[in-house]
User: Fold Putative MFS family arabinose efflux permease from Streptomyces echinatus.
Amino acid sequence: MPQQTTQDTPVPQQTAQDTPTRPGRRRFAGYRRLFGLPGARAFTAGNLLARLPMGMFSVSAVVMIAGARGSYALAGAVTATGLAATAVAGPWLARLVDRHGQARIALPATAVSALGSLALLLCVRRDAPDWTLFAAYACTAATPNIGGLSRARWAHLLRDEPGTLHAANAFEQAADELCFMLGPVLASFLTGTFFPEAGTLVGAVLLLAGMALFTAQRATEPPPRARSKAPSPLRSPGVPALLVCFTATGAVFGSMEVVTIAYADAGGRRAAAGAVLALQAAGSCAAGLVYGARKPAAPRLHRCLAAMAALMTLPWAAASTGSLGVLAGALLVAGMATAPTMVTAMTLVQRRTPDDRLNEGMSLVVTGLLIGIACGSATGGWATERLSPVAAFGVPATAAALALLVSLAPEAARRVTVRGFPQATGGHRSTCARDSISVRPLTDGDRK
Assistant:
């Protein structure tokens, strides 16, 4: 009997599903999905361009004002005024964005902010009275929450894809870290290489151009909402306690920056402080991207905060060695806890804020961070002068521990109440924790 030829032998066909996928590609599939969405690359490019100046303006203003007026105290007071004005105006501006749309509000507001920066430049250049510097820089508070605008677009586009939205939030946090790492470097280069006003001028141009490109992408813009009947995000269950956590986390950032600069200055190496702080941002950026590539689990904020509280003790220990290199390595490792904490907390804010007030909710987060940064900077400066630069590293460690305690307190209250009144709780979170991080009906996933 003749043998069958190979042409008669069926050959199994390899389908796309059977094709082996490299682990690295599988791991970062969420990011590929993000930028495969129509219009995502364009609005991300515009948003990053507009976000970069956020790390430039403060440094540029300090260099410009201190160089012209010979007073770092005046420069610090002017930038602090802008910070306070931003914290107040941010939620109000975000509410307008939710109601009328990003393009109608964000672009004109950005134009006002850019004009404020240019007015500051002219006041410094023309030797105008000091009060005009405060008035001009206060106008920059009209800058929208640029990162929040981008996160709102991702939340709109990926409302049915929580896994991909997790990757989007991680990417946005990494982008924040990158911009605040590169922004001061670019500002220092421009002000040192060209003229003191160059950083402010270039920052204003980048801000306006980036926002114009971002708002031009109308297909990905969330639809405007009518006047919301939902309560303020401040009254949403769990959001107030989250904002307290953000404030404590901001205190970690603000105090760490001041204390690190003071520590480097005490050793005669102040010029290296910027590079050392950039390592902390680099560690956070890398950890955020890796965290976003992982399959998202149920948000466990207290775990992230526990990791941050533990790792923030490393710079304190490293500072006692007297080596700036050892401190730099400790900051790199400590920074790795920052982005996962921020991503998890931001995800919880998005879940617990009404859809038609999402920009307002995320702007409140920025307000909490700014308040925390201001308080942390002041406390870190006080500890540096009254104690020592080494002992002052206890301030960011204490702020991180405080954030952890805030996240654990509602859960502890819930357990006490549930044990004391098992029939009254009916499977819901205790009313004692109604304004806490943990407030919502218990689900099967919670019980697991």
Q: What stands out?
A: Residues 236 and 352 are 7 Å apart (CA to CA). The chain has 20 helices and no strands.
